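Training component of the fellowship. As part of building independent skills, the fellow (R.M.) carried out the full modelling exercise for a liganded target. The chosen ligand was flavin-adenine dinucleotide. The inputs are recorded below so that the supervisory panel can assess the work.
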Amino acid sequence: MSSFFCKQCLKTMINSFLSVRSNLFSYVPNVTLACKRYIQTIKVGIIGSGPAGFYTAQALLKDSRVLIDIYEKYPVPFGLIRFGVAPDHQSNVINSFTNTALQDRVSFYGNINIGQDVTLNQLLKSYNAVVLCYGATEDRKLNIEGEDLINVLPARRFVGWYNGIPQDSDLNPFLQTEDVVIIGHGNVALDCARILLSPSTDITNHALTALRESKVKRVYLVGRRGPLQVSFTIKELRELTKLPGCDTIVFPEDFKNITAETINELPRPRKRLTELLLSLANEKNLNNNHKRCVLMFCRSPLQIVGDKHGKVSSVNLGVNRLIQQEDGVKTELTDEKEILKCGLFLRSIGYRAVSIDPSIPLNDKTGVISNTNGKVHGFDFGLYCSGWAATGATGVIIGTMNASFEIAEHILKDFGQNEPLLVEKPGATEIIPHLKSKGVKVVTFNDWQRIDELEKNLGSQLGKPREKLVNQKDMIKAVDEEKD
Ligand SMILES: Cc1cc2nc3c(=O)[nH]c(=O)nc-3n(C[C@H](O)[C@H](O)[C@H](O)COP(=O)(O)OP(=O)(O)OC[C@H]3O[C@@H](n4cnc5c(N)ncnc54)[C@H](O)[C@@H]3O)c2cc1C
Ligand SMILES: NC(=O)c1ccc[n+]([C@@H]2O[C@H](COP(=O)([O-])OP(=O)(O)OC[C@H]3O[C@@H](n4cnc5c(N)ncnc54)[C@H](OP(=O)(O)O)[C@@H]3O)[C@@H](O)[C@H]2O)c1
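Fellow's submitted model of the complex:
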């Protein structure tokens, strides 16, 4: 009993029972009401400060009893907004996340790696609910021969390099080659191609310097399916076609089985995208002095080939035919093969979530945390997930926002239904001293704002919005120096 009802409720229950002896069961609703009054705060721990973390927090704040602590692995917030989204694609979501972080009922604790610095179990004991919003931080693999050769990289790391993610800042991708192959027809592949062919000046300085000295002339974007199945979107393709000094090439033969009627019947966004691809296929005015971005369809990498130094030198491609099946368009290898030479090979075939604690069930096939409406399987009440960790690595920020709002609704509903089970929890007052005693340097949102200011100052000296600190030690140093 005592683990279910607080002292105040027990008192109310006894009083209620004594005063209304004629109705033995009348104390039951009183207890629920008393509990509602007595629980002053519902403590929620959110793991990850990307869009999912911040949008989930924003929606949970609707319940005035909710207090939120956001834990982030890096000393800096915002997840892929900082480390994924290309600097020339930034929107104003950071302002809205900052507003959320500055609310009285929200605290940010950076530089804390959940799973390593503190266990999930410790968090579950200290919070009424924990929401896993830690994204999808691992890249998918092709599982073909040669994937471990030198200069074969996941696009995830290449993106991390030009966006200043600490562990990839010294990646040094090999750019003294004229030919780069990128596998995958998603927006990440297009981001990488765009940066390789005409780098935005807003990327980190180390990457910009290397890219300015790059010898890359041709980027091959290789997709396993056809023009009607690409994952990238029209805005991003159009941007690629407008790069100065660069032509985007599509081969007319890739459209030989696609009739005007088929195109007309496509949903509008897909129709417009296909029309743009078709117009590129009909383009005759190619400039021999320009760099080239070549879109190749119906090709699967079979083997990555290395030279005697273990560096990638070419890729063997199999030509596919497309087969319409009940669950979509699939590929089947034909006997036709091709060899494409390259000095840098990027695989950009999607991301997957990892398990940061052995108790978190992960669907190995889909790379997401096993969950129903955000409720993690195997946990009755108290553990949730949201964002790419819950849905998989698909969709743009607005999609992550909508999904996070929905999951927050489910969590609030769960709080309502499990009201009598809610007891006061210590939240960060228990976790933070524990971390400090272990020597973990905790970075607050105030601290981040100091780093932010410093980065903006460094940027203004270089004529750009910000120059990111790319080293975790430098971030911490910036905080400590300001405090001295
Ligand atoms: C390269 C790239 C470019 C993109 N560009 C765009 C774009 O231009 N426009 C657009 O709308 N969408 C874009 N997206 C999609 C967008 O970034 C995602 O929809 C969104 O970031 C997913 O949010 P999330 O919070 O689930 O994950 P994330 O943004 O990855 O956030 C997860 C957070 O959890 C933290 N974390 C991870 N593990 C731990 C741990 N153990 N302890 C504590 N914290 C942890 C991470 O450091 C991170 O801060 C892009 C995606 C990529 C990969
Ligand atoms: N500017 C933006 O808005 C922006 C920028 C970057 C990312 N994003 C979003 O972030 C999400 C992730 O992007 P993403 O590009 O990583 O993933 P994605 O959109 O899922 O694209 C992955 C690509 O890899 C291919 N692929 C998967 N497995 C493969 C394999 N084994 N062999 C060969 N090809 C394979 C897929 O082909 P199949 O279709 O055949 O599976 C697809 O073309 C997307 O929703 C994207 O829109 C948005």
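The panel noted the following from the submitted structure. The pocket of NAP (ligand 2) is lined by residues 89, 142, 183-189, 191, 223-225, 229, 231, 236, 300, 348-351, 393-396 (CB under 6 Å). Residues 20-36 have pLDDT under 50 and may be disordered.
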